[in-house]
Amino acid sequence: MIVHSLEVIEGRLALEDNGAVQPFATEFYPISFKLDAFSTVGRADNALTFAATNSLGSEFSWKGSLDLGKGECFGSFAMTGFKVESFSPYFLHFLNFEILDTYIDVSFDHFIDLFNAENPLQILKGHVRFSELKVQPKETAEYHFELPLLEVKDINADVLPQVLQVGGIEVEGGAILVRQEKAGDLNLLRMAKLNLGEKEVSPSKTPKPSSGSSAKAPGRPWQFYVGKVAVRDFAIKAEDLKPQTPARMYAVVESIDTRGLSHDLSREIPFEVNIRLAEEGSFLMEGRVAPQPLHLSAALQLGDYPLNSLQPYIDSFARVEVSDGRFHAGGQIVLERKQGDSIPTFTYDGEMAIREFLTLESEAGRELVSAQGAELKGIAFQSVPLRLMVDEIKLDQPKGNVVLDEQGQLNVAQLMVTAQKEEAVEVSVAEVGDASQPQATLPEFRVETLSMEGGSFHFFDRSVVPVTSVQMNQMSGQVQGISLAPDNETSLALSGVIDGVGQLDVKGLVMPHDLTRRFELDLALRGVDLVPFTAYSGKYAGKAINKGNISVTVGVKIEEGQLRANNVIGMNQFTFGQSIESEDATDLPVELAVALLKDVNGKIELDVPVKGRVDDPEFSYMGIVVKVLGNLLVK
């Protein structure tokens, strides 16, 4: 049979489906078809074309050639403007969300060889384009997912050998909303549930066919390769409605780039991620990852992350406002799951820092703790087994304020939010374990050096009149060898200036896990002005302090439970002033006692040695000091 020319124009096809959950109807018009130089005896120079437009705005076209003698067909197919929302009657009833708009454009060449049993169909130069995708839950008009443009380019596939090659996948723009509701459920998980029959089923839990079904055994898996994947300007909005004050975070994925995705899950693929956090924060990661077995190795940089974004979570347990502060981190991470491991192991080697940190008391608005900076250098963290090593923690200009209010309550003691009491639950010994059994091994933890420069501490006492304040400035020092090891020794050195004139120096060496084995402390307090403490002398002695300063030296040493200490208290030109009315004032002749303790130069020196065994339950360090001072006053 030979057909020289056959043409159909202005064709019309109407489709109606009343069997769907909602009636569906569309009309294809106009439809055109043209066939030139067709022969059943095998001519390859024929030409066939087909085109149609439906009432929903979609256009379909195909053109190509057909050689019946060789069983070959070569052609090009294109579909544009296919609107997914228009076909919602077929899928909307079992989804918990609506797909709005969402246009799909498809084009590809194909080659069919019916006599080639190994590869009868090839797809060539394919292109798929998704645009204007919008997803929203059925119960709200708020978009939870948007994708303006997704393109899959350069698609080539051999269907029967099941080989797929994709030149690239590109995403341009878009946004996703991740929200935890007040009840704790996630919006995306709720939307992902399928309404199949009487109950909702998660896609990951779709019922599997029974063993007696006629389902075919899985054949050869598809082999695929993707040249590159690129994501640009994709927004992530995260909301947590569980805290009393909802937490919100906004980020923009400025770029994600990877290449070489394939069916070989053991193959490592490179990737780069660049995310803008909030307004000024940044997150950069570059590395390689293999899905199976899991192995990820990457360098990361986190900069200027605003700590006040964590305020809703802080409010749940503390009355503290994070007014300022930026978190920084940089280093190398490895996430690896080796064969036989139940959970992956995570390691981090690098540095962390907080800069321009400032906290306030939420209710009073007073400055609480601040620091110009805090740096953690030489961090080595491992999750399994748990291990954390830090070369140095450096505090730059830390400041702290402690206030004793009019009722005698410390501000720091009132910062924690009291949790609601829960009903008591009886728990058996079997449930919590036998205390006589060996305890779990402590994780390996060590900080080589904790240092401080330019620190200050301010204490306000509003429980006395006049209000008393003591300030320590120019604080500097080091603590070396902080560790959880039972035989660890920690040394410390601290110095500072009190109220601009007094000097404090502390040095020590201790075994934190057993202070009775090794404890050495030398404290020197020199030239502290006593006049600012008039409020206390007035309240308890009934006298103001006219002048004077105090110096104290303490030397304490403990070895194998035996304590020896020398305590020397010295006052220079200590003189009481006018009398102050106070209900708490003692009736003892304090002025006479001070006068008797002074030498001819107006100095008071008290030497209070202390010794004893710290493992003796009757031993009390302060009890001995008070007793010795009392004896001196009586004498």
Structure summary, number of beta strands? 30
**Structural Rg:** 39 Å
Report the sheet-strand fraction: over 45%
How many helices in DSSP terms?
Answer: 6
Shape assignment: elongated
Distance between the termini: 137 Å
Which stretches are low in confidence, meaning pLDDT under 50 for 5 or more residues running? 421-425, 429-433
Helix/strand-derived category reads mainly beta
Bin the helical content. under 10%
| Largest sheet data | 28 strands, mixed
Q: Which whole number gives the mean pLDDT? A: 88
Q: Can you walk me through this structure?
A:
The protein is mostly beta strands and 635 residues long. The chain has six helices and 30 strands. The chain has helices spanning 187-192, 311-314, 429-432, 534-541, 590-597, 621-634, and strands at residues 2-17, 24-39, 47-54, 59-67, 72-83, 97-113, 121-137, 145-158, 163-172, 175-180, 194-196, 199-201, 223-240, 247-262, 269-277, 281-290, 295-306, 320-336, 345-361, 367-382, 387-396, 399-404, 444-461, 468-483, 490-498, 502-510, 518-529, 543-559, 562-579, 603-613. The strands form two sheets. The chain has a 28-stranded mixed sheet that branches. Strand 16 and strand 17 (295-306) form a beta hairpin. The longest helix is centred in the last third of the chain and has 14 residues, at 621-634. The N and C termini lie far apart (137 Å).
